[in-house]
Amino acid sequence: MYTPLEWFRKRFSDPQILLLTFVILGVLAALYVFGEALKPFVASVVIAYLLEGFIRPMERRRVPRWLAVTIVFTAFLLVAVFLIFSLLPLLTEQLQRVVRDLPDIVRQVQNLIRTLPERYPGFIEPQYADSLISAIGQRLQEWGGHLVSLSISYIPGLATLLVYMVLVPFLILFMLKDKELILGYVRSFLPPHQQLAQSVWRDVDRQIGNFIRGKVWEIIIVGLVTYFTFRLMGFNYSALLGVLTGFSVLVPYVGAAVVTIPVALLGLVQWGPSWELAYLLFAYGVIQGLDGNVLVPLIFYEAVKLHPVAIILAILIFGSIWGFWGIFFAIPLATVVKSILDAVPRLHHVEDPDPDRPGEHPGAAEPE
C-alpha cells in the first residue's frame, strides 16, 4: 500500500498537474495583487460569458460569428442604456426616500424595543432595552457622519466610473470578436502536453458559463417578480428592494436572510405593525422559497454539482479574499477545484491498485 507521501509524489509529479497548478496559482496571485485594477477586466469577462450564451446558438444556425457578435452586442448596449436612463432615476428617488425616512425607521424600532420588556418580562430587562435604544441612536449618528464623508469621497470616483463605462464595452466587444485569437495566444505560452489542462478547461468553461448565465437570469427573474409583487401591494420601495432581492441571490442562503432586514424595516415604517407588513413578509418568503426550490433547480440543473456546505465554505473563503467578486465567483472557483480533483484520476485512467491485494501487482499470478 502506498504511503501518503508516495501517493502525493505519484499524483503531483506529473508535468501536466504541475503546469495546471502553476497556472491556477498564477491567476489567483494576479487577482489578489492587482484585483482593484482588474475590476473592469473581470466585469468584462463576466458579461462576455453571458453574451456568449446568445452567440453560440446563432453560430449553430450558421450565422457568421461577426454578425452574431454585432447583433448581440448592439442589443446589450441598448438594454444597458435603457436600464441606466429608466431604472437608475427610480432607484435614486427611492434611495433618497429611505434617507429621509431613516429617523422614522429608528423611531419605529425604538418604540418596538420599548414594548419588549412589557411583552416578555421574564426574558428582556428594561435596562437592557434602554441601553439598546441609546446604542441605536449613537449608531445612527455614526452612519450619518459616514454617509456625508462617503458622499464627499465618492466625487473623485465618478471620473473612474465614467472611464469604466467606456472601457468595459470595448473590452467586451474585443473579447467576443477575437475570442479564438485570444485563447490561441494564451495557449501558445503553454507546453505541448496539455491534456489535463484542456480537460479541466472544458469542464470549467462549461460550468462557469452555465453558472454566470444562469445566475444573471435568476437575478432578473427574482428581481422582476419581487418588484411587481411589492408594487401590487402598494409598497413605496418596490424598485429598490426588487433590485436588492435580485442581487441577494449572488450569496446563496445568506443573501435572502440579509435582505429580509430592510424589507421588514421599510415595511414597518410604511404600515407599522399591521397585517400589511405580515403580508409583505409572507410574499417575500414565498418568492425566496420558489427561487430556492423551483427556479434554482430548473436553471442550474446538472450545471453545478456542489454540496451546500461546500458552497457556503467557498463563499466565506473567497469572499474574505476578494470581497464582492470573491462572493460572485465563489461557486465557479469551487467548481475549478472540483474539476481538478475529478480530472486527476482520469489522467491516470484508473485508481492506483492496492499493493496488498493479490493479483494486482505487475506479474502477480492469478488465483486458480
Automatic annotation (TrEMBL):
Record's keyword terms, sorted: Cell membrane, Membrane, Transmembrane, Transmembrane helix, Transport
Protein name per its UniProtKB record: Putative permease
Main location: membrane
Top-level taxon in the UniProt lineage: Bacteria
Transmembrane segments: 17-34, 67-91, 154-176, 216-233, 239-265, 277-300, 306-331
Cellular compartments per GO CC: plasma membrane
Family recorded in the similarity comment: Belongs to the autoinducer-2 exporter (AI-2E) (TC 2.A.86) family.
PANTHER family documented for this protein: PERMEASE PERM-RELATED, TRANSMEMBRANE PROTEIN
Subcellular location: Cell membrane
One Pfam family of this chain: AI-2E_transport
Membrane listed as a keyword: yes
GO biological process, one term: transmembrane transport
Membrane topology: Multi-pass membrane protein
Family annotation (InterPro entries): AI-2E-like
